[in-house]
Specification:
The complex is a heterotetramer of chains A (352), B (188), C (207) and D (389). Chain A is an alpha/beta fold. Chain A has a domain of 132 residues: Peroxisomal Thiolase, Chain A, domain 1. Chain A is built from eleven helices and twelve strands. A ten-stranded mixed beta sheet of chain A has the order 3-2-4-7-1-8-12-11-9-10, sandwiched between helices. In chain A, helix 3 crosses helix 11 and helix 9 packs across helix 10. Chain B has a domain of 127 residues. Chain B has a five-stranded antiparallel beta sheet with strand order 9-8-7-10-11, with no helix packed on it. In chain B, strands 5-4-6 form a three-stranded antiparallel beta sheet, covered by helices on one side. Chain B has a two-stranded antiparallel sheet with strand order 1-2. In chain B, strand 8 and strand 9 form a beta hairpin. The longest helix of chain B has 12 residues. The radius of gyration of chain B is 22 Å and the shape is globular. In chain C, 5% of the residues lie in helices and 30% in strands. Classes of the chains: A alpha/beta (352), B mainly beta (188), C mainly beta (207), D alpha/beta (389). At the B-C interface, strand 2, strand 3, helix 1 and strand 6 of B face strand 1, strand 2 and helix 1 of C.
């Protein structure tokens, strides 16, 4: 495969609601931030790809007007996925493999605040046998959490540890929406939101945007000292019906991690897109990530969960750590659908 | 500063259709952004998206809904012999058509559950209840349902539950009004 | 598809073939910065656009200049008079519409703006509307003014002579697309790049 | 590794109609996919990955419906990808799928595009009054009709061109058993006398709203060579291109969009086409309103600006003409929005494989598939040929 690297990443501050900006206004700082960091404009970009979904803000074709943020004039090579931006990044990676272009811009955004997000997400479910019951996304995740607890492999205390560590790590992340330093006991003293999940086991609802710039080979080396090279990337899906899956494991993540080569070397850092605490535990096991790996130093999706964007942010957070030299080899993960239905795994490395 | 959380508590009751634009002024409370100049007062307006979807079912899901109307649960037999409910139209592993439908349950076992202490207005029950994955007798997979168990203490994985059928049934997932613990009255 | 084998209990009843699954979702929209500025202008019966660094004026503004990909930071008021750049005559009643048919939906380039808006033309028979016709905004009664562009009920002829030289957006570089058949394919250089200032067979049609 | 060769080795589509009341959404998608697999002599197990395309999720009221269709598409444990680029999506979906093979990532990729508009009501889904957004007074036709008027004015085209296109496409559709509209008694006069919906666009010059799906199996050179050795001709992909431009730009030409022209120039360069009028045997282009045929003929370099309508008038674009356009009957006969672009790409591939049945162009060896979307600002095209590139 051709050597391709993430050379720039920018995100907006993640917030509960960004009322004062429309989607294109919210997106522009991320896009221009990512380009400016490597002294580029859209004229230097070979291919642009974005991820978003119409259902969040309730508006069909919302990606059409947000394209204005990049200034697609003269006309550009561009595409859009109705998926998390991590998959837009995958499409751009495929495009870069063809060898015809050397640079790509990937962005993603979400304004979830106009709608009732846990109910909006019920529209992803089987529209005949599940959707009419309106099982909100927190309840669906709680079914998975209970199944995991029932195995005896983990306890509610283990869930609490994920929450406590993530919010504490987020204190160092200026873009985090939630960050605090609280003890396990404080967490466990909370009432259940939807048992067995407590409020702090759940992600916030987030408005925000992020953008990444890619470059191949020498173009990447000319732009940054230490590009974050993609060494492997893969994604897999499972059926939507919860009854057709073992909810306590993530088979699709396991396959994707194997294809991406996670186990081929030590992993210094992993950014895992686990919106709910128990999901981090399932995903760590699926990817075989052990004690020597720093998990979600940004605070992860528990600290900011912009839909369709949080997966792309995971890639950017790992790339930033590799480019800064604080990690040599890292894993980024993105998820989509109820209870970790679809998963993407990417292995990134710096030059030694 | 870090106070925002999951927003279930903001659940609104259904309102009558308000398609007409009725903007109100929202005072922007957030000024800690470096983005935008800030127009100060931001306009806000409701939009309700409401479609009268009419979905064609195909023969397999149609049979499942027919069963609900007739107060029976229907599953499909997968290539590996498992009985799947609601019936899969297609083998979940190979993707091939599944055509053998069988009757299961209707009583079954809770395989996992979650307790909702503050139901949303759209939820099937207006009092605290449990979402559960329920594996009907004779089936190898589970389906989603709302269990009316009174209190969280009455729920546990492995418990037996049975459906309470709606009086008026039309071939719809809501023909199962709710599930109840079998100990609360069997085939009520 | 192979024949479905049904269990006895539902073999002899009328099968379900479709199901109604109505779904309602509630959203609370906010307008964003640029649109709020525009609608605040409407409440005062003024039409406010925004100007991009390159000079383009967008009405209604959406906060970004799509050519530069940059914010449009300067509020500018444009005229309530403009020129019809194209239109269609509608002979069908659409959802939610209470228009008397036929009616005219037109692209109107307001004086001072760089992009046509779409609005209705009234007070003239539909078959007399023309490209180049000068029109002016007609507002609702003061009491009915709301922060929506529908507070401009429609546009009507001003009676001025037609502007036969109206710049129709996009036509400026039309000639650059020519000569395909002769074997010369168009390139990006046909138009001026607003960021670099390079290219362009005309000054972006600004003339 | 560089760019690998890729070919279409399987093509399938549903019978298209206003309401496919006999199948579920999954059943609709599978009807097309199973036909494509059968055509490729493959089973679900042979497929490495699937790429799904459709237009706005509001049409069916399922958010990201590819998630719930994962097992219907035989994708358990496999990669499944979803593309959405407005009306051009069927074309761009096929391109994304082709690139997975060209990049050497997969050998056999299934791509499916669909729309089941009957589950809701498409016109309504598109005309929801979004707060603070100026209303579209007359639906999609009201948006495009002024552009058509601009074209007529600029090209000095006579009024009957739109009627000729509609008549040709509807008659071509009679030869296509999958087409939604089969209007046996269509005539020049019946089109001329139909309601002038959005003057200058008549009712009979507009596309229908359809339920339907289209699927393609794309194979690597090895897979395609094996098919060819077995007597099943592949359609070799000789070039693919996409371009986007802003909706609202003062520079934008909505009659001859620069994005469309650049997209065409790019795809011709890849395919070694220097004179499209001469080097292309037939074209399947996205014409939802009849007047877009002459507009796209000019935009895609088949005619000089202002001259496209003369090709239509002279019968050049007829099925037996020198440059047949929309042999299948096109979007004017069949319009499951998300699939409409892929149907264009599929028809181009059928032509060079020689499998287009009654609407086959004799000796077609190189064909163009074209799709556009949004307010004429998203473009996707491919060139397919009987010959290996």
């Amino acid at each position: 495969m051709r050597d391709v690297a993430i050379i720039s990443f920018a995100q907006t501050p993640m917030r509960r609601r960004v009322d004062e900006l429309n989607e294109v206004e919210m997106l522009m700082p991320a896009v221009h931030g990512a380009l400016a960091q490597v002294d580029m404009t859209i004229d230097d970009i070979g291919f642009t790809c974005s991820g978003s979904t119409d259902y969040l803000a309730g508006m069909a074709f919302s990606f059409v007007s947000t394209l204005d943020a990049v200034g697609p004039w003269p006309p550009i090579q561009e595409s859009h996925v109705e998926m998390d931006g991590a998959w837009a990044l995958y499409e751009a990676w495929v495009k870069l493999q063809l060898g015809e272009i050397d640079t790509a811009l990937v962005y993603a955004y979400a304004k979830s605040s106009p709608g009732d997000l846990p109910m909006v997400l019920t529209r992803q479910l089987d529209p005949i046998t599940m959707g009419p019951l309106w099982p909100d996304s927190v309840s669906i995740a709680a079914l998975q959490a209970r199944a995991l607890l029932d195995t005896g492999r983990v306890t509610e205390g283990d869930l609490a540890e994920v929450a406590v560590r993530s919010r504490r790590d987020a204190l160092a992340n200026p873009n985090a929406q939630l960050a605090w330093d609280r003890g396990l006991d404080d967490h466990l003293a909370e009432d259940y939101l939807v048992a067995p999940l407590r409020r702090s086991d759940c992600p916030p609802i987030t408005d925000g945007a992020a953008a990444i710039v890619w470059a191949a080979g020498d173009e990447a080396r000319s732009k940054v000292d230490r590009p974050a090279w993609i060494r492997g990337i893969d994604h897999r899906i499972e059926p939507i019906h919860l009854g057709l899956r073992d909810l306590t494991v993530s088979e699709s993540t396991r396959i994707a991690a194997e294809k991406a080569g996670v186990a081929d070397g030590p992993v210094d850092v992993a950014e895992i897109h686990a919106p709910f605490t128990h999901q981090e535990l399932i995903l760590r096991q699926a990817m075989g990530l052990g004690g020597s790996t720093a998990i979600n130093p940004s605070g992860g999706a528990l600290c900011a969960n912009p839909m369709m964007t949080a997966g792309l942010v995971r890639l950017g957070e790992v790339a930033n750590r590799i480019s800064a030299g604080t990690a040599d080899r890292g894993v980024a993960h993105a998820t989509s659908g109820p209870c970790l239905q679809q998963n993407l795994v990417c292995v990134l490395e710096g030059d030694n | 500063m870090f106070v925002d959380q999951v927003d279930l508590s903001e659940a609104r009751a259904p309102t009558s259709v308000r398609r007409k634009l009725k903007p109100v002024l929202l005072w922007s409370a957030v000024t800690d952004t470096t983005q935008g100049a800030g127009a100060g007062e931001i306009l806000s307006a409701p939009l309700i998206i409401e479609y009268p979807f009419k979905r064609t079912t195909g023969p397999v899901i149609g049979a499942f809904l027919t069963g609900l109307r007739e107060r029976v649960l229907i599953g499909s037999r997968a290539e590996d012999g498992r009985v799947i409910v609601p019936p899969a139209e297609f083998d979940p592993v190979s993707g091939n058509d599944l055509t053998e439908l069988v009757e299961v349950g209707p009583a079954g076992v809770v395989t996992t559950w979650a307790w909702v202490s503050a139901p949303h207005a759209k939820h099937p029950l207006d009092r605290p209840f449990a979402w559960a994955q329920i594996r009907p007798d004779g089936a190898d997979t589970s389906m989603l349902g709302a269990v009316d168990a009174g209190a969280m203490e009455n729920m546990q994985t492995g418990m037996r539950v049975t459906p309470v059928w709606a009086d008026e049934r039309e071939g719809h997932i809501c023909d199962i009004a709710r599930w109840i613990p079998e100990s609360d009255g069997g085939n009520a | 598809m192979a024949e479905i084998v049904l269990p006895p209990s539902i073999r002899d009843v009328e099968p379900v073939r479709s199901v109604r699954t109505p779904a309602q979702l509630d959203y609370e929209f906010t307008a964003g910065d640029a649109t709020t500025r525009f609608l605040n202008g409407i409440v005062n019966k003024r039409i406010i656009g925004q100007q991009a660094p390159g000079g383009r004026v967008y009405v209604p503004p959406r906060g970004a200049d799509p050519e530069l990909g940059q914010p449009t930071p300067i509020d500018v008021e444009v005229a309530q008079v403009g020129t019809v750049t194209s239109f269609c005559v509608v002979n069908l009643q659409f959802y939610g519409s209470v228009m008397e048919i036929p009616y005219v939906s037109a692209l109107i380039l307001l004086d001072g703006a760089d992009l046509s808006i779409m609005h209705l033309i009234q007070e003239i028979p539909a078959d007399q509307v023309r490209i180049g016709m000068r029109v002016e905004a007609v507002w609702r009664d003061d009491a009915d003014i709301e922060p929506t562009f529908e507070s401009v009920r429609y546009f009507r002829p001003t009676g001025e002579p037609d502007d036969v030289n109206v710049r129709i957006p996009g036509e400026g570089h039309g000639t650059g697309l020519g000569s395909w058949v002769g074997g010369v394919a168009p390139t990006e250089a046909v138009i001026r790049n607003p960021r670099t200032g390079q290219g362009g067979t005309t000054e972006g049609g600004d003339a | 590794m560089g760019k690998q060769r890729v070919a279409v080795v399987g093509i399938g589509q549903t019978k298209h109609q206003a309401t496919r009341g006999d199948v579920s959404m999954a059943g609709l998608v599978r009807e097309a996919a199973l036909r494509a697999l059968a055509d490729a002599q493959m089973t679900w197990a042979d497929i490495d990955a699937a790429v799904v395309g459709k237009a706005p999720d509001f049409f069916e009221g399922v958010m990201m419906p590819e998630l719930f269709l994962a097992d219907a598409l035989g994708c358990t444990g496999k990669p499944l990808f979803r593309v959405h680029t407005a009306g051009s999506v069927g074309g761009s979906t096929a391109i994304v799928a082709a690139q997975l093979v060209q990049a050497g990532i997969h050998e056999r990729v299934l791509t499916v595009a669909f729309e089941k508009q009957s589950e809701s009501e498409a016109m309504w889904a598109l005309s929801l009054p979004i707060p603070f957004t100026p209303p579209l007074h007359a639906g999609a036709g009201g948006y495009f009709a002024p552009h058509v008027r601009s074209y007529i004015r600029r090209a000095k085209a006579p009024d009957h061109i739109g009627i000729l296109v509609a008549l040709k496409d509807r008659q071509n559709g009679l030869k296509n058993p999958y087409a939604h509209l089969h209007e046996h008694d269509i005539s020049f006069d019946s089109i001329k006398d139909s309601l002038m919906l959005w003057d200058p666009i008549r009712y009979a010059e507009t596309c229908p709203s359809s339920d339907g799906a289209c699927a393609l199996v794309l194979g690597s050179e090895r897979v395609a060579d094996a098919a060819a050795a077995d007597g099943r001709k592949p359609a070799w992909i000789q070039g693919t291109a996409m371009r986007s431009e802003p909706t609202l730009s003062a520079e934008r030409d909505t009659v001859l969009p620069l994005g469309g022209a650049l997209c065409a120039a790019d795809v011709y360069r890849q395919a070694g086409i220097t004179n499209p009028r001469k080097d292309v045997d037939c074209v399947e282009m996205y014409v939802p309103f009849s007047w877009f045929e002459p507009m796209w003929l000019e935009n895609l370099g088949f005619a000089e600006p202002g001259e496209g309508w003369k090709l239509t008038e002279a019968g050049v674009t007829a099925l037996d003409g020198d440059l047949p356009v929309n042999m299948s009957g096109g979007v004017l006969c069949t319009n499951p929005i998300g699939a409409s672009g892929m149907l264009r790409f599929a028809e181009a591939a059928m032509q060079v494989r020689g499998t287009a049945g009654d609407h086959q162009v004799d000796g077609a060896r190189r064909a163009v598939g074209h799709a556009y979307g949004g307010g004429s600002q998203f473009f996707a095209m491919w060139v397919v040929g009987a010959d290996k590139p």
